[in-house]
Every structure is written in C-alpha cells, then in structure tokens.
Amino acid sequence: MSGTSSSLRSRFKWFFLIIIIGLLSAFAAVKWYQKQQPDIQVLTSDGVLQHIQHLNNLETVAFHIDTVVTSTREGSWNRLWQDQQKGLFVASGRVVAGLNLSKLTPENVSVSKDGKAIHIKLPPVEILSSSLDKTEIYDIQTGLFGLMDIDPQLLSLAQTAARRKIIQTACQSGILELANGNAQKQIESLFTLTQAQITVESAPVPKCA
C-alpha cells in the first residue's frame, strides 16, 4: 500500500513539474513575440516640436580665431599729449553659430495624417555666442619714456575690438553657410529612428553681422 502511495506522489510531482515547465515556456514565447513586434509610434506636430525645442540652442559649428588688434588712449593737452598710450594685443576667441530653436513655432512643423511624413521649416541660423579665451599684450607704449602706468581701459577697448573682429572674420569665412548645412543634417538625424520620411527646409542664410 505504501508503494502505491509513493508511486502516486511521484506521478503527481512529475505532473506538477510538467505544468510549471509548460507555463514557463508559454511565458517565454509571449515575451519573445512581444520583442519581435515593432513599437507603435504616433507622431504629431506638437510632439515633433517639443522634441526639437528640448535642445534649446542647436550649436552646429564653432570657429576658433586668433586676431591682432590695437588700442589707443589719446593724450591730454595739459600734459602736452605725452601721456598717450598705445597697445598691440593678440587675442584668441571662439564664435559659435547655429539655431535658436525657441523660434520654432507650430507653423514650422507639419506631420501627415498617417504619421509617415514630417516637414520641418527651420528658422534662420545665427551667431549664438562669441567669447575671448585670452588676450595677450604683444607691445605697448605708455607715454614719454614709458614711465606711466598702463590704463586698464586700454585692455578693455582691445577686448571689445577683438570680439568684433573675430565675429567679422567668422562671417567672412562663411560660418553661417556652414551652420545652415549642418543644422539641416542634425535635425534630420533626430528622427532617423521614427522610420518616417523627413523633409527639412532651411531658411535663407541671413546677412552676417
């Protein structure tokens, strides 16, 4: 009798084990099937706009420029103009251009009804920032016999002139044209995973300041 009871328990254990294995196999099969199914993405104009504006400023090109500037402080008549100061400065700076994406509006973005086509009209590219990394004195004259202290305003005037000059140099080198082309490519790359057809329309390149 005990042998029969032991046999029943053994069969029950095997039956229970088979059920567990079956359930685990079914669960694994469902998970595998879910992984094979592509994610369903619903694209809307508002969603595309928010996705782009999240970047705030899109810096698409940066120029590093070295320039030489002069700065002069005129002498005063009561010192017979012998207190005139003149300096020659070497400045290194950086000019960044790209898109201010806060200027993108809902009218700039359109999505087809089936969500398979996106058209984006970009705002004009612009100079986003300019900065001086360093300004060094190359040569300076501080009045008769060089006995006068350097006027701090001399350096300030040189830095102002240097910022203006590095922007001018960047403009002459085509920074906005390069930024425009890069902006179009970078915006297109944002939506490569959507499998939608992307059309990015660049605005005319504005006059560089």
From TrEMBL:
<dbReference type="Pfam" id="PF14014">
    <property type="entry name" value="DUF4230"/>
</dbReference>
<protein>
    <recommendedName>
        <fullName>DUF4230 domain-containing protein</fullName>
    </recommendedName>
</protein>
<dbReference type="InterPro" id="IPR025324">
    <property type="entry name" value="DUF4230"/>
</dbReference>
